Amino acid sequence: MDRIRLIFPEYLRAKLVPGEQILSALSLALLFGLLYELLAGKSSVDGIPSDYFSLMIYAVLFCIAALLLKLPRWVLYSTIILALILHIFYLTQIVAKFDQDANSTRDDAVELTAQAFIRGENPWNHTPEMDVRATTGPASIWLAIPFVLIFGEINWLAFLFWILIFAILLVGDTQNKNNTFPTLASLFIIGILGFSHTLTWSLDELYFPFLFIALAYWAVIRQHYFLTGILLAIPPLFRLNYIFIIMGFLCWFLFYKKFSVHCLLRIGLGATLAILLIVVPFILIGGNEFYKFNPFLLAFSFSEISEWPSNNIFFHVLNYLGRHTDPTTLIFLKLGIISGILLVSASFLRRIQHPFWHIAIAALLAQTIAWFSNIAADYELLFVIPAFMAVAFTPNELSAVNKPSNCTGK
What we know:
Elements lengths: L1 H6 L2 H4 L8 H18 L10 H19 L4 H21 L12 H13 L19 H14 L3 H22 L4 H10 L4 H6 L8 H13 L3 H9 L8 H15 L4 H26 L1 H5 L2 H8 L10 H12 L2 H22 L7 H15 L10 H12 L18
Helix pairs in contact: 3-4, 3-9, 4-5, 5-8, 5-9, 6-7, 8-20, 11-12, 12-14, 13-18, 13-19, 18-19, 19-20
């Protein structure tokens, strides 16, 4: 017992009471639903081997027993972590290699561009294996290179990414004592909200930048603003649409923190250093070819797309603007609309201690106003992942109210 007290804080040693705590009761309901699906041999993904169902059934049964028997929280959480590791392993190492992998190009794009860069070629003009030009950013390539060199693929990178995402959610739960981890983990395993689609079709690379955004939040809280600048510069170098998500982060920073010119200068210097270190090697290798063929030009061309579904008044207005303005003017109109909504939203959310709701709103605006995709399921987690983080970092299941602090960091 003394060892347990040394390893686990008081929150994790405490008991869960489903009848008294709403999120604990919701977790129990989700686990019952998941258990039925597993007993029926069904999952959010077809073709998973039978041993997966056997192991997951035992894990879910143990979780249900831990809740009903009011065992210490660490028992339930440990079991959920093991179930998550098993589930993520099966999805990234087995399901990701099923027949649908031949029609999925996201992971192929990362692997092929990394291989081209290793050969000393411009990655965005030397991937003949692909029928279309890759939109993979330079930060994705740097992150993928070790895994491509060792494994020849990025499946283990995807595995590590999801483990780290849930490590962040677990930290949020334990810091804020809000019982959110079992619920969020259950929703992930059930596969709703775009999770099963993303992992089945190996779209994980679209969401790697969220790890750096979470670290940027950590850097802001600890007032390391030079490091904050480095971390905020990296996501748009994965994919250009993360510029809007970083705008959401900065709107939170603007309203939540009392900062100075020196604070912004440290962030700017850190961002400049990160951009130079990540992009310059590609310029040196690609030369003039880089200026003609790079992911930023291709991504920017998407901003000229001006067609939205005619299913609501707001989209009708955007379609009208698209028909009656030139592409350049439309881009500035989009930026103005997004910036205005973000600033208004940030003013209402100004006392929230984390940026994740701001980021979720920014992601939604980016994928509906800046560019609307006909394959919406591919980008659903752009809003869901930061929303999960927002839930995990909300104190006491009630609010995220906290007092702002001065910018006097390093």
